[in-house]
Design brief:
- This is 7-carboxy-7-deazaguanine synthase.
- The protein is α/β, with parallel strands linked by helices and 237 residues long.
- 35% of the residues lie in helices and 22% in strands.
- It has 9 helices and 9 strands.
- It has a 9-stranded mixed β-sheet with strand order 3-1-2-4-5-6-7-8-9.
- Helix 2 runs parallel beside helix 3.
Length: 237
């Protein structure tokens, strides 16, 4: 992984770059993609599968995070024949001031850029111009986080109204389904995907079977975790 030179200002805090692989979740599931995984998060979900991006009690920030110049990220992407680039985390929007610059460089290089976010920080107009789609994943009660931290309704409404957002919810059980029904009604969310929590093939398949009927009943789309079905919990896939 490339590190920045002293004094370099146009940088992002990066956990890892990987791909080509497949987008494993949501509307773009199965599409070939490159991933830019950024470090840092403003939430601490109990089931998080990328704690190395934020849990500095268990992981070393110095070992897991690199200050990487935007030009180096764009150069890496330019060397790979992949249309879709997914910016993920952690929570990418906590570095939103640099995201617009990075996305603009990637788009100029012929890429389509999607951004994955927990929906707690609203996008500004400049970012909306260059991101092709926002995969917004608000956290439900099963995350173990108090509602006032995990659900920012004004930000969610901004994503809803921008015309570029799909909403994806991790479901851990019946209580999450009940909360999602209420939240969808309250915020008039139209494009909703549900996904089981799990980092093994068995847990993902079992979760898909449990979610199938509720998804059909409530008019939701159902997504697997394709990368888990293919490679288990292997990092960088």
């Amino acid at each position: 992984m490339t590190t920045s030179t002293p004094g370099q200002s146009r940088v992002l805090q990066v956990a890892e770059l990987f791909g080509p692989t497949f987008q494993g979740e949501g509307p773009s599931c199965g599409q070939r993609a490159l991933f830019v995984r950024l470090s840092g998060c403003n939430l601490d979900c109990g089931w998080c599968d990328t704690p190395y991006t934020w849990d500095w009690e268990r992981f070393s920030r110095d070992k897991q995070t690199v200050d990487m110049p935007l030009a180096a990220i764009a150069s890496w992407a330019a060397g790979l024949d992949t249309d879709l680039i997914v910016i993920t985390g952690g929570e990418p929007m906590i570095q939103h001031r640099r995201l617009r610059e990075l996305a603009a460089e990637l788009v100029a290089g012929g890429h389509r850029v999607e951004l994955e976010t927990n929906g707690t920080i609203a996008p500004d107009a400049a970012l909306l111009e260059v991101i092709s789609a926002f995969n917004v994943s608000p956290k439900l009660n099963g995350s173990g986080i108090p509602e006032q931290r995990r659900l920012r309704r004004q930000a969610l409404a901004a994503f809803r109204d921008c015309g570029k957002a799909e909403f994806k919810f991790v479901i851990t059980g019946p209580a999450d389904i009940e909360e999602l029904v209420q939240l969808q009604t309250e915020l008039s969310l139209q494009r909703v995907w549900v996904m089981p929590e799990g980092t093994t093939e068995a847990s993902v398949l079992a979760g898909l079977r449990e979610l199938a009927e509720p998804a059909l009943t409530h008019g939701w789309n159902l997504t697997s975790r394709l990368h888990v079905l293919l490679w288990g919990d292997e990092r960088g896939r």
